[in-house]
Structure formats: structure tokens, C-alpha cells
Queue: 2 jobs
Job 1
Amino acid sequence: MKRSSSRETRIHINTPPIPALPWEDRPESCTDPLWRYSGNPVITRRNVPESHLISNSAAVAFREKFAGVFRCDAQSGDIFLNAGFSDDGISWKIEPKCIFFAEDGTPMCGYDPRVCRMEDGRYYITWCSRFHGPSVGIAWTDDFRTFHKIGNALLPANRNGVLFPRKINGEYLLLSRPCDWGHTPCGDIFLSRSKDFIYWGKHEFVMPRYSGWQSLKIGAGPVPVETEEGWLLIYHGVFSTCNGFVYSFGAALLDLEQPWKVLFRGDPYLLTPEAPYETTGFVPNVAFPTAMLVDAPSGRMTIYYGCADTCVGICFGYVDEIVEWLKKHSLIIP
Ligand code: BMA
């Protein structure tokens, strides 16, 4: 990987440093806010023998290295979540067997996991669970070996549950996107609050679908990143074409104390399916972001995103550049 000498972020980012962050410098010819890793995809079905696909998965920094929860579809068609480990965030060893909950031995079924390291040092997993329809499951681990089930945070049908990494005014915050039992023809982002991870309420509306790449539905992506200017949220947006859905992703900046207030929201997308592994696969034209690693001192960010519901890619950017980009390309005048 090509690494330039260190650089200092231009805005304060409230996350721990990740010196081993997977990184490749922006190609000289590239003027886009994000750029893809030249070695993409970093995870394919071949990472787990007998898997059908591995996509939309979440990586986090873990004990100086990396760990994660991966959507691994079996060749039977069943959809499971498996744990995985990596020294460099690029080469992953994914457990061949799915996660089984410590409490009752049931498998962790579902898709689109996100992993959030909370202030208590635990890693909380939210994912689209099966609870008489798609719901937002919550579980936690502190070692990626033993997983504890908390339950379903929200009634069906709901997807794209994403936690904030710290309590705000004494409450945990969860973004979600109410949906239907199928491929959901519309959808907006909401927020719910809880004091204990069990009872969720005090719901707030965050933002609606808009136009173009985000005209059909939107959903939160990785765990938001706290900066001095607001929470940086990467989210996916869907455009409906005569040939199916196109999943792109963009960004918004949310108020630090009241994150249902949107300060800036990008009008153009940040990344849309373009590379062959994004436009071709099990579901063509899907770029679905689910994790973001940030090295606060340098402001470098690495996004993990599912590609064509088939494999996982990563792309890079700088947090301060994305915040500046948002201010220049915002739909909303604060
Ligand atoms: C959504 C989710 C994602 C998937 C996307 C595109 O509804 O199911 O897992 O990547 O559709 O198929």
C-alpha cells in the first residue's frame, strides 16, 4: 500500500488514533473526495469455504489490529453473520462457522451488520435481524469470540439500525430506516433514544429521501464519527431505474447535541457504482457502506462497503476534506 508521510487533520476528530489504518494515497489523477483501494475487493466469497457471498460487513479497530462481523450467505441461501480478524484491515480471516449467541446457542441470522465501540469498551452489533420480518437486532461482545444477545430494538419492519458511539444527554441513540417486508419503495432516516438498550423511544425524524441518487430511499451507513463541527454520517441512497435499483452513498453532518438536526447534507453522491466489482455481481450496481475507520490525528478515513451484494471493497478519504466538501455542496443552508 502506498502511504505518504503523516499529515495533520484540520478539524478535531473525537476518536482514538488507528496507526495501522489501511490506507493508500489518492492517485495523482483523482480529484474526487473518495478514492477506491487499487486492490479491491478486499473480501470475496473465497474468504469462507462454501460461502455463496460475503458483502455488507463491519470492521473495527480491535486490540491494535482489526476485527469485524461479516455477512456470509451460505450456498443454501441462508444468511448468517460470522466473526473475522485481520492484522492490517485488508487480509481477513473469517470464521467458517457463524456466530452463535452465548445465552441460547441460536445462530446470528440476518444481514447488514454495523459494529459500534461504545464508551464502556464493549462492541455493540446492530443488524437486520429476523423478527417476524426485518427488525433491528442488538448484541454485544468484548472479544469477538463470545456474543451476547440483547434483543430487537424496534418493531418490524425496520432496517439500517446504526448506533452513535457515546451517550448524548444520558441516552443511547439509534438511527434506523422504517421499511417494508420486501424491497421497500421508499424510506427516510429516523432516530430513537434509550437509557438501557432495551426500551427505545423518544423518536425523532432526521432526514427524508430527496432527489437523484437519493430519491427512492436512504439509510444510515457506518457508525457516525464525531468531529468538532458535528457528527459525520455516511449514508446510502437509492435511485430507481428501469433496470433496477442503484445504491450510491453520500454524507451529512449532524448536530453534536441534537443529531436529528441536519447541519449540512451533500447534494451529489460521494461514490456511485462504477468499478466492475460494483456494477456486476449478485445484485448489480450496489455500493453499500457499513463501516468507517478513522485515524483522528491524520484525519484519514477508510470506508468498508458492500459491492454488488457479492464482495467487500474499501475506499479512502480525509474527514476534514469531506466536511469542507459538504459545506460547498450542501442541500441545506444552516
Ligand atoms: C437492501 C439490503 C442490502 C442490500 C441492498 C441491495 O435492502 O438488503 O443488504 O445490499 O438491499 O440489494
Note: The chain has one domain: 43-328.
Job 2
Amino acid sequence: EVRLRVREALGAREPAGEVKVQGWVRSVRSQKEVLFLHINDGSSLENLQVVADPSLENRDLTFGSAVEVQGKLVKSPHRMQNMELKAETIRVVGPCDTLAFPLKTKERHPLEYVRQFPHLRCRNNTLGSLLRIRSEATAAIHSFFQDNGYVHIHTPIITSNDCEGAGELFQIETSNEAREPAEKTHFFDVPAFLTVSGQLHLEVMAGAFTHVFTFGPTFRAENSQSRRHLAEFYMVEAELSFTESLEDIMQDRLEKTLKNKFVIISYNEAVEILKQASQTFTFKPEWGCDLQTEHEKYLVKHCGEVPVFVINYPYDLKPFYMRDNEDGPQHTVAAVDLLVPGIGELCGGSLREERLPFLRSRLQRLGLTDAYQWYLDLRKFGSVPHGGFGMGFERYLQYILGVENIKDVIPFPRFSHSCLL
Ligand code: 4AD
Ligand code: MG
């Protein structure tokens, strides 16, 4: 007796004798002469049709129940599918309380509805497909970087740094009641946080491996209920040594992936474009202000609904690590954000300040010299021009799949006032 996944059963070339397939019932159709079941174990988008004698019908055999079907795999008479399973025995492994089960048979539940059931929604077809694509995209991203000579780095989740300096850190405390209160917060002797970005650790590694990437969870206590923010999200980050221009970061690597047309504009140009349409915004565009979602949307539309790189942002707007452009009264750094249709900001990146005097004086002004001694060290021992970017993985999935709400492209969304399961 051979145990087959639904995917294997559907893809079989030849009929097979004694096989066993397990899965959950997706539909039951009982006729006078024959009982039809559709089952799936999540290995395929398509259900496997089971054909059985009506005598095998059983009151526990309902939508949502878990079953084990044993029988023969035969060619299906239907043109739509290759194989079907002629059942000899059907065993209900786990019945389903259909009255209480919130995902009803055949109904196309809206995503907002299934979101209420984080422990069950993966059984919904749409959610199931999104999560399967997420899994494939994860593998594709790893292959892309590995195939292009990048070394994968597991950057730490617990860190004593605030890379972005935006005050959105989750601080770590122990829950061990037996400890003294002072010890509680000082398990590491220093305040420790969940990481907001693996960038600083990647910069360390780029100083040895030249091209590195990381792809892991990052955390931000953003008090935002928007459809594109999470408190826990995954970020794809790459860091490249011996990189002297933003074009290297934008094109050398990204051009390969972005087959379609894209546009590059400076922050100054962006502000000029926005000012022409000032009356359309709630938040009036001014040089020195961060681009709001409404501004990002407008810029993408203005450029013809294509991806837009905005480069060279105001010095005072951006984190300490960005490279000083040393340019006049409208002082900028070599930063780049990628805005895409329907989403807004998808990637953020920059050249890093590799010059010791510049970095030291900026850190001094921020009172961060002690904390970042190791980071300054990197500029003393073979410092090279370098840069990189981070892409929000969930926003990327939203973009390629056209998914309205970020909560639907991550298995277990965490956002303010919500940490279910
Ligand atoms: O622009 P950000 O803050 O850039 C950095 O963290 C850099 N240190 C990355 C680097 O250069 N290595 O974040 C990068 C991307 C954003 O463009 C956005 O797509 C995503 O991360 N992101 C979020 N996604 C979901 N929920 C949030 N709260 C997010 N915050 C940022
Ligand atoms: Mg950003």
C-alpha cells in the first residue's frame, strides 16, 4: 500500500492499485448511485476527486473533516482532471463540528472575514494560495542572492542598537519573577531590543564578504493601523562593498529584476512636482518634510504608474549612517527610496558614510559615539565605499499579488492592539 500526497495522486501517470490518500474534505456530493468527495491535503491547488459507493457515506463525513481514503487510483473520465480515487474504505480521522466551523462550504469568504480566525484561515483557498506563494517567493529570493554571489548572514534578532534611530524599538525584558527587578531589565547588562533592521550587522559582514544579504524578521512599534504596516515583518536586506554610487545599488542588481520601465527623480524634483499640486494634499509638501503616503501615491501617478526611485533626501530627515552629499544649503544624503504603484515605499537604501571624520562628527552631535565605537572601528580598518537596501517582504508580496491589506500576506500578523495566538 502506497501513501500518496494529493499532488502526487493528481500528477500520477499510471493507474495504481492499493493507495492511501489523507486530507480534509472540501466537498461532499451524495447521489443515488455514487458518492463524490473532494479532498485536499494542501499539497495542491486542485482537489482530488474521490468516487465511492453510497454505502461508504457516514454522518461524520462532512466539509472540514479529516479523512483517510484507501482505494485505487484510476484515470478520470472528466477532461478537467487526470486521476481520481476509487475508494474502497473511507476513515474519518477527525470529524468537524460543521455548525460551529466558521468557514462554510463553497462560500467565498472575504479576506476581512477570515482574518478573524487566525488559527483557521489557512484552510481558506485564497489565504492558502497566498501563503504558498509566500513560501515560493522566500525560496526564490534566497536563490537569487545565492546565485549572484551573496553570502547569507543570520543577523541577530536581539540587539543593543537602534539602526534607524526612529524610536520604534521593542525593548526586551525577562519574565522571570524570581529575579530582582534590576536584573529583570538587565539580563544583558545593557538595554536590549528586537531588531528594526539587520543593516549594521550586514555592514560588518560586507567588510569581509563584499556582497551579503539577510532575510529575517524585523520589529517596529509603529502605532499605525495602516494597510501596509506591521509590528513584525520580514525584510530582505543586501549590502554591497566597493559601491560608489546610488546607481550601483539601484541598477546593477535591481535592473535584472525590474524588467519594466522605472523612473529616477531626486527628492528636490519630487518636492517641486508635489508643490505644483499642493492643494490636493492634506499634508502640504515642503522641502525638508518626509514624503507622506498621499505624496508617494501622487509621485507614482505623475511618473506614469511605474516604479519610482527617489534619491538624495534631506540630511536631517535620515539616519546617522547615510553618506553626506556635502551639497549647499539644501543639505542631502545619498539615500534612495523605491516607490511602487499601489503600495508606495517598497525599499529604502543608501550609500553608507564610510569616511571616519564625517561619521564621527555626526555621531558626536547625536551623543552616540560610545555606543557606536565598533561601527567607527569599521571605518579605521580597511573602510570602503559601500551601500545597500532593505525591502519589506510583505509589501513586495502585496505589490506582486495586488493584495489590499498587508495582514493577508503574513501567516500571523502582529500590529498595534493585536497579537493573536
Ligand atoms: O526604509 P527602512 O526603514 O530601511 C531600513 O531599515 C534600512 N536599514 C534598510 C537597509 O538599507 N538595509 O525599511 C525598509 C523597508 C521599507 O521600505 C518598507 O518596505 C519595509 O521595510 N517596512 C515595513 N513593512 C511593513 N511594516 C512596517 N512597519 C515597515 N517598516 C518598514
Ligand atoms: Mg524607509
Note: Residues 121-408 form a domain with the BirA Bifunctional Protein; domain 2 fold (CATH 3.30.930.10).
